[in-house]
Amino acid sequence: MFILVTPELAVRLEEAQDFKRLKLVVAADRSDLAKLRRALAGIAALAEDGHAWVSEDWLRGRAKDAAWQKGLSTMIAVASKYGWVDETAKTIRAHVEWADGSSAKS
């Protein structure tokens, strides 16, 4: 699954049934990080290391289906084994991919 930020700064979850990966795809202009950070408020926080920390609550709010929720829980449990979950903040680390194909630090 991935979170897409469109050029207009709309945010939506794509490929929600793919529990094997989690990334943030940013198609918006990276020259105005302040606007991007505002668009992601409550959804994900960009980190200096080229990753983002995605809100578990936001993800869970995307679907009410019990099977999907179970799939998400399993994905989070696997991510936790690698240290990619912040239990206190209830966030999951995701790779950030920019529209230009780069994954450089933000």
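That was protein one. Protein two is written in the same sequence-then-structure order:
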Amino acid sequence: MRLSLQEVVQDFAGALKKADEKRPVEGSYEPGIGPHPEEKALDLALGQLKSSLPDRYEDACPRTYPSSGRECDLVIPGDWAIEVKLARPYRDNGDVSPYWVKKVLSPYPDDYPGSRSAVGDCLKLDKADFDERTALMVIGYEHDPPKIEVGTAIESLELIVEVVQDVRLGPREESTAQDLVHDVFEQSTVYGWEVGQSG
């Protein structure tokens, strides 16, 4: 039976929470999953999933796009090729991060200098030639309750991708984990969309 995107989103939200409970430390930052860069956060979550759900995730790993040689963040063989982005309105020290929205909403292709946004990921995925279905996941970190709501950027992302860039998105899936150990990154929400092939 094929793995649904809803299952993947829920699995990753739970795995991030489990990883956070171990109080991982990134550099000189305070403990918790929140300060970790995208690749390390993904590695920590995937390690949890390989241990707890090996039938789903044992062979999951980054993989290059078949035709471009660029690397896709996560491929679950036979099921999903997924690009992942982090959305963090605040820094570890509690200051507002001035460029966080750019990493989500920049409407330019991935090869535009300095772009590399979630929108750019959708443009890549829409043209990808993976055998697997393609999807975008955004991991949003917030205070609880939020001081700056990641959800506003998420709704804007959907409009830019579908209306401005004319790329089809499937229904949004989301799952939230609360009571994280970091006092800035207090909750995380994993958002996911299937990114449909055009044409």
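The chain has six helices and six strands. Keep this in mind for the problem set.
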